[in-house]
Task: structure prediction
Amino acid sequence: MIDSVQRLGVAYHFETEIEGALHEIAANFNHEIEYDLYTAALQFRLLRQQGIKVCCDIFEKFKDSRGKFKDCLLKDVPGMLSLYEAAHLGIRGEDILDEAIAFTTTGLESVLKQLSTKLAEQVRHALNRPIRKCLPRLEARHYISVYSTDESRNKTLLRFAIMDFNLLQGLHRKELSGITKWWKDEQASTKFPYARDRIVECYFWILGVYFEPKYALARKIMTKIISVLSILDDTYDAYGTNEELQLLTETIQRWDTEAADTLPESMRNVCLMLFRLYNDIGEEMEEQGMSFAIQYAKEGLIKAVQCYHAESKWRDEGYLPTFDEYMEIALFSTTYPFLSLASFLGIVEPSTKEVIEWVGNFPKIVEASSIICRLMDDIVSHTFEQERHHVASAVECYMKQCGASEEDAIEYLRKEIANGWKDVNEQCLKPNKVPDFFLQRILNLARVMDILYKDDDAYTNSYLAKDMISSVLMESLSF
Result:
């Protein structure tokens, strides 16, 4: 029942009850009980998702005398699927979970053609998007359709999930309408014709970070921030001259509104739009008793802009940095360290100030999320970007530093992405330095990357994200 409640997207209504039930399960979770594969993997996943560190050695009993997973498990498709999902909660050093992913992936792919249509669809969905990497709203939209055909479904729970999904969808559409009005009032499409016009995609991105009603203010602030960042990114990436970008960077570093008026038109427009937004956020923060947060938000933004500028200088100078040198700058030019901090603006909790200070120190989970962001982006976009005089990507920098081929470089980067996920998983385990709901924001930022950049750049090529966005924001569910 807990798994269904979570996957249906209604767990936020029952957080206390779920926490209590899972701690009770954890107290009785041990190697002595003869769990079947499905149950062992399900309980392991649910506990790890809750931040409860349980040992992966429980899966040793499913291996044979050679230390390999037993061949007979291939006949147990629900068990294999459960193990596959559980294995994505692994951390570094848990080799058995790496083996489990390889075993279940190969095994499930091999039996796909033999499965019923319904089960085959579930397996395909999981192989493409494991639960750990899927955005909660997309998973809810998918799982409601799966659960509705489950003969053992709880009809009351299903009806509640559909009602909740539709109510939230209405709330989200209303929020998007207000943000779109702000975008039009700023005349962003007209003032920045060279930039990607992606306000809907920006809202979808942030909806992935938090969807619950209580985070409405945070969503509004965060969507506006990321939309301006997108314009800044395109300004540094493909529009401004080196001299213009130097002036823009200095103006933002000084936070000098008077100097902004002396900038070239496009630089002036983006700078003034940024300053107006921060004035609005400052007023919101003061009303929420969080006026301390705006200075942290300025510092985080300035760091991102400085890294944008550093990369633009590399490009204009034709300089190819080493991989290590590149990553020192490129992790911050993802803006994920800044966005991790900005995601806490508008969240009024007693611990918010301490958490903002903590995230500003670039903790391991933020670093891991930024690695996932940078490397996934670079893998799918590097070929196109090299054709248009773009700064070198992680692919080219690794090839230079290690004398590697493009294929070997991409293989290495994929391993680093996998390690990034393991680090995110580890940092979500208790005991934590910060409350779980803050860590979930950073986890969700990593999930957005897997949604939008797994196979292609679906932010730049927004038609690739159209169906996902429509399913969450436009297509209501019927009973």
The two ends are 20 Å apart (CA to CA). Residues 117 and 123 are 10 Å apart (CA to CA).
